[in-house]
Amino acid sequence: MCGIVGYVGNKNASTIVLNGLKKLEYRGYDSAGIASVNGALDIRRASGKLINLETKLVEKPLLGNLAIGHTRWATHGAPVERNAHPHADEANNIAVVQNGIVENFIVLRRQLQDEGHEFKSDTDTEVITHLVDKYLADGNELVTACRLAFRQLEGAHAIAVTSQQEPDKIIAARLGNAGGVIVGLGDGENYLASDIPAILEHTQHVVFLEDQEMAVITANGITYSRIDGASIEKDYTVITWDPISAVKGQYHHFMEKEIHEQPQSIQSTIRGRVDFTTGKIAFEELELTPEAAKQLDRVMIVACGTSFYAGQVGRFILEKLARIKVSVEYASEFRYRDTLIDDKTAILAISQSGETVDTLAAMEEGREQGAKLWSIVNVQGSMVHKLSDGSILMQAGPEIGVASTKAFTTTLTDLFMLGMYLGQLRGTLSDEESLELVKHLAHLPELAGEVLKEGYNDFETLVHLYHKKDHFLYLGRGVNYPIAMEGALKLKEISYIHAEGYPAGEMKHGPIALIDEDMPVLCIVTQDNVYDKMISQVEQVRARDGVVISLVNEGDTMVAEKSTHILQIPKTHPLLTPILSVIPLQLLAYHIAVRRGADVDQPRNLAKSVTVE
Ligand code: AGP
Fold it and tell me: 46-51: which pairs have CB atoms within 8 A and are 24 or more residues apart?
């Protein structure tokens, strides 16, 4: 969940590393630090947000052309300066940063203490520092000392090490699924990062390290090897993301920007996939024949958080269009059940980051049991992408705000097209139906743009009246029930208001007891097969003096009359409605959070990539 950046070249390294860390702050933001080598090793660290580190660097700059830095999401040890990375040894010879957990750190720490090493922090990472130090003291060169140290670690890790003894190199390693380790290729300079946005402004040529791989990075070259010592060759990948998309531009927050990018990202998602004259959809990357699609018995969607809710919408789509059994599983629970999987099962992992450790574990479990592995993922080269037999790359571009927005709607667009694709291969979707569906799809970016127009919905009144509330309820039915869950998740994660999403039909089985004049209830009442049922729900809440904010289709005066407030979206095909209905809920959460003065892009306790269990 932490972010790592490294640079070696001919420029001031700490400036480049600090700027890179700013782009990774979404991964962790409770403390940060940078170590640079300029003859001697020099380190600056600060608790809290990166700005604190930046202030320290202004007061006391770090010189030198090689540096590694880290932004932390604490696992072991409080988020105070002494626990911030990089961690140096007693002699201030080497500095280490890590993303992941050293699971056997207690045993290692005791052994090292018995051997005379003195620890200065409460972190698990510091054992890596002392292990490397110990093997250096035995006369090994840095790369060998690192290799020997890394072999002793249990758990999953992304690690960077530097030393004043060999001041021209950064050693980087990836052990297991603790998040990306990406080497960026420059001219007379090279980079290291946990994620692409950190180095995208410098290079679009990157090398992804795999599990058990190491890189020795110098200004003029990089060598790759395995932890066991075998040399390897690595190919580079060209990243097609636009570097501009990783900066905030005119917007106040990345989340605001990413919400407004949705018409564009939906458009890019559709582009090249759909033949609008025949209605046919193309997903060559799944390498699926009609026979194989027909033999498929079941799709199991595995995901976490917002991606899980996307999966729940996906179940409606796939069942309807492809007539296939679908289950949606919390990836975090998946491996703790005796799940029944076979070679007629396709596991479909959904992940924006492609690094979520639980999702990866669920995929691995599926692989062991012989399932086909598919994924919908935003980050090219990520572990989810690589582990899949067939992977659909979202066209969301980098998503920096911790609260996922555009990745959600691009995933829903991909799921809609996947449902159509499977339906076409399995013969459950006729040409006429396909043509009708792609007509709706073609209008989607424009409709999303309408929802985002200034003044289309009145958020000001809602924010003014309700930003101080402690609780919110979100209700939906059918395909919009996961949107109620997602709307509630958005509100709670960025505004810290307690919000519950519920399938509306469950209300009378308990939660209706919560309704009173103090409880705003957001009801998704779009015109579909559960429209009448949702209207009764609105009536039931009103009858108990609840405040009802109804999300309706444009021009629905009937529901407007029954509600306290309305939000609106244009009408589209019912299976595409969630892509539009979530947008006002994203905006409502955003505006409420801003009014409450919350840190929208970096909400407390959260991180963008959840790489620990
Ligand atoms: C979304 O707003 C959340 N921050 C979170 O629930 C996220 O969707 C979840 O952690 C899964 O992440 P992934 O899509 O990168 O796997």
Answer: 46/81, 46/84, 47/79, 47/80, 47/81, 47/84, 48/79, 49/25, 49/602, 50/18, 50/21, 50/22, 50/25
pLDDT of the residue at 613:
67
User: How many angstroms separate the CA atoms of 596 and 465, rounded?
Assistant: 12
For helices 13-24 and 50-59, give the axis angle rounded to 10 degrees: 170
332 C-beta closer than 6 A to ligand 1: no
Q: What is the rounded CA–CA span in Å between residue 585 and residue 473?
A: 12
* H-run or E-run covering 53: helix 50-59
Over residues 332-344, the mean pLDDT reads 87
Q: Can you tell me which atom of ligand 1 is nearest the CA of 490?
A: 2
Cα–chain center distance at 430: 36
How many C-alpha atoms does 121 have within 13 Å on its Cβ side? 28
Evaluate whether 276 touches 436 at the Cβ level (below 8 Å): no
491 CB within 6 A, ligand 1: no
Which residues are marked as active site? 2, 608
Q: How much is the pTM?
A: 0.80
Give yes or no for residue 100 having a pLDDT over 90.
no
Determine whether the shortest distance from the Cβ of 306 to ligand 1 is under 6 A.
yes
pLDDT tens per residue across span 233-280: 999 999 887 766 667 778 999 999 999 999 999 999 999 899 999 999
Q: Find the 402 Cα to ligand 1 centroid distance in Å.
A: 8
Pocket flag, ligand 1, residue 304 (CB < 6 Å): yes
Residues 174, 212 contacting (CB under 8 angstroms): yes
Strand 547-553, strand 520-525: pairing:
parallel
Distance, CA of 80 to CA of 122 (rounded, Å): 10
Average pLDDT, the chain: 93
Alpha carbon distances (Å) from 41 to 38, 337, 545:
6, 49, 66
358-377 mean pLDDT: 94
Q: Does 585 contact ligand 1 (Cβ within 6 A)?
A: no
Cα separation, 233 vs 211, in Å, equals 15
129 lines ligand 1 (CB under 6 A): no
What is the Cβ-side half-sphere exposure of residue 340, based on CA atoms within 13 angstroms? 3
| Nearest CA owner, ligand 1 atom 10 | 305
Span between the terminal Cα atoms of the chain, in Å? 10
Q: Which candidate, 165, 158, 163, places its Cα nearest to that of 183?
A: 158
Closest ligand 1 atom to 304 CA: 11
DSSP 8-state symbol, 186: -
pLDDT per residue over 373-429, tens digit each?
A: 999 999 988 889 999 999 999 999 889 888 999 999 999 999 999 999 999 999 999
Please identify, by atom number, the ligand 1 atom nearest to the C-alpha of residue 384: 16
> How far is the centre of ligand 1, averaged over its atoms, from the C-alpha of 588 (Å)?
19
For the chain, count helices (H), then strands (E): 19, 25
Q: How far is the CA of 309 from the centre of ligand 1 (A)?
A: 10
Ligand 1 geometric centre to CA of 307 (Å): 6
pLDDT at res. 81: 87
- Cβ contact 302:366 at 8 Å: yes
Q: Give the number of the atom of ligand 1 that is nearest the alpha carbon of residue 306.
A: 8
Cβ 126 under 6 angstroms from ligand 1: no
